[in-house]
Amino acid sequence: MKWAEGIDKLGMTLYVLLCVFAVLNIYSVKEDLGQKQLIFFGISCFVGMIIFFMRTKFFENMSAIIYVGGVLLLIGLFPFGTEILGQKNWYKFGGFTMQPVEFAKIGTSLMLANYVSNQDFNINNQRSLITSLAIIAIPGAVVLMIPDVGSLLVFVAFVIALYREGLSGKLFLVGTLFAGVFLIANYLNDPLKINLWYFTIIILVLGAIWVVFNVAMLHKNIYSLLPAIGIIVLLAVLSVVSPIVFEKLPKHQQERVEVLYKGEREFRDTSGYNLLYSKTAIGSGGMMGKGYKQGSVTQGKFVPEQETDYIFCTVGEEWGFLGSSILILCYAIFIGRIYYLAENQKSTFNRVFGYCFASILLIHFVINLGMVMGLFPTVGIPLPFFSYGGSSLLAFSIMTFIFFKLNYADKNSLV
Within 10 Å of residue 334's Cβ, how many Cβ atoms? Predict the structure, then answer.
């Protein structure tokens, strides 16, 4: 049909497949929640139909209002939020709950896309750079104060979108160095390992060698290296301060990081419990899986909240390596498809929004899978479209339909 020209059939098919497969797996864990997720999916599709009949300029024109609304919802958590599983990042209305950070991601994506698409925007201009980073930092700061570390990590997605628009990759390098020093310093903060001060000295020595090399061999002006020297000093300070900061974190958060160093068995009765049984479930599935609703770990309810952050271990146990691989492949194709379509948009607004959306999906996907397999600390990151929850599914669905609506308009544009 002519009206369907421009609708990305591959992307929409993958979206439906992921959502339907999710309902099946959630139903396997808890039948009542599977039924609710099916209702959430129906609501998401209905909202998607409304989005598809809206004018594309609506999203661009209303981006600031949606952004401010998202930030205000986050701020409202402090007086009105309900604490669930130790975090006050939910609103509760009778029997329903809503997590506003999921919708704040939509507002931030739209606002960033709107600002970057402005004709006066230049990523190399200090004002443009600071403003774009501020758009990301404002909701990010509120999320940090909640605190919701997992959701805060997702805000890196917006920096990836800016990287596509010309932001220097050095920012990612610096961020990686700071994260690496924090983790290594806490790993070395043990009497059985080398003295932590040796690590600090190594950072300073390597930094000094790098500075000397740039001045003596590359003939760079020492003043041009001052920002880099400042970063080296901060890294050295961080190596000393990290263990002090780490010890002030709540005990369960400390253990979630220590599980990476010491293994989940040492914390099997506390923070390592979920991971231990998650890995057991995934490993027990073998090549073909135990069969639908036949998983002993899943049916035995050994993994708490398995229908949310740890839903992937259900796939591993019941559908095996083959089913898990197919699911991962579907996610890879879907995310890659969003990036591909975003790159081919005529509109800068469409492109930036697409990159924001794809990057959010990518970070959620990588961290969630790393979390359930013990490659990343447990931080409460849902698997997009797959983890149980109306807020998460609706928010990801809204972003999906907004992008495919923008792509539809782009393909049917005469410009």
Answer: 22
